[in-house]
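pasting for the record
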Amino acid sequence: MDFIEELKWRGMLNNMMPGIEDELKKGMATAYLGFDPTADSLHIGHLVGVMMLRHFQRCGNKPIALVGGATGMIGDPSMKSQERKLLDEETLRHNQEAIKKQLAKFLDFESDAPNAAVLVNNYDWMKDFTFLDFIRDVGKLITVNYMMAKESVKKRLSGENQQGMSFTEFSYQLVQGYDFLTLFRDRGCTIQIGGSDQWGNMTTGTELIRRVLGKEAYALTCNLITKADGTKFGKTEGGNVWLDAARTSPYKFYQFWLNVADDDAERYIKIFTSLEREEIEALIEEHRQDPGRRVLQRRLAQEITTLVHGTDNLKAAEEASQILFSNNTAQVLHTIDENTLLDVFEGVPTFTVSRADIDGNIRLADLLVEKAQVFPSKAEFRKLVQQGGFSVNKEKITDPQATASTSMLLQDKYIIVQRGKKQYYLLIVQ
């Protein structure tokens, strides 16, 4: 596999410095990508870079994942309108371990192959670097004029909020440049990979290497992903789509990919999977023949959910996705976890009812008219039951005199009530 060609046909390549293709032809190359450790989980906005490292390793090269423990204490000004909160070392170390576990699903860290991935933290080489040593050994090598010319700096200085930029943030590109110099010198890392917004910081690193060592290093950027309608990729009404199941459930993660627009699906399946070109082109053609079947979205959701959460969670997410549309999912309702259950029925009308009523075998008619206003009257309840249009936990109720019982409780506290085909209600039993 040719790494550059792989990125090009997948639509992932934004910019690269001249000479990088010759560098890759010399044999196994080493490249690094930095990750912001301000959270203990990556989100899907990080996945473009992660997939680039994955392809880099698949092409026989050695990837380095750099956790920015030092730079995370500063805050990158690129594409930001204000400074971030700074983190303490204990939090950074915790976040680093959590991020490595997630990256290990995409990269081979454990094998004895020469191109096994490596995780480093720039805090390890920056923590004992005194301020005086840094400005003497690094600061004097790059001029203020050079740093001021960077787009990220110019945008912040001319920003609408007029807050300007602190010296801390202004120095960020020097610290990131020193990371590249360190990895070049200590690990033979000649390439830095990042998003297109990082170009200025990355080229500072190549300039620093040229001035200190008299050698050439290279930068390569990927496109920042947007949606077909121009809005930001990876954001939902609830915020970021995280890789951590505790932050974004596998069901919601699966649903995000399942619901992308057709145009987006054609781009995303190239970017976020490792499927070969021929298979992807066949899937795109099949999808265009009958977009209603959502072949692309389903395969995309299956591939990326399996990578991040595993086959068992994929199966559970697929089963949960059918709950609202199938009459054969009563058993699934009793097996899915509480978070997934609440995700599936997010936004449906919710009522809180007393556990004493359920323990007392209250009639469903009384429960759903007097205790929870699911029906306006008992007559309407009886009519729908007799017509076969009423279900509890996806099981049809045929007796208008039926009672509620603790056996109906899901996760020992929920009951799902369904009127007709599409009207759902969630009862919380307390």
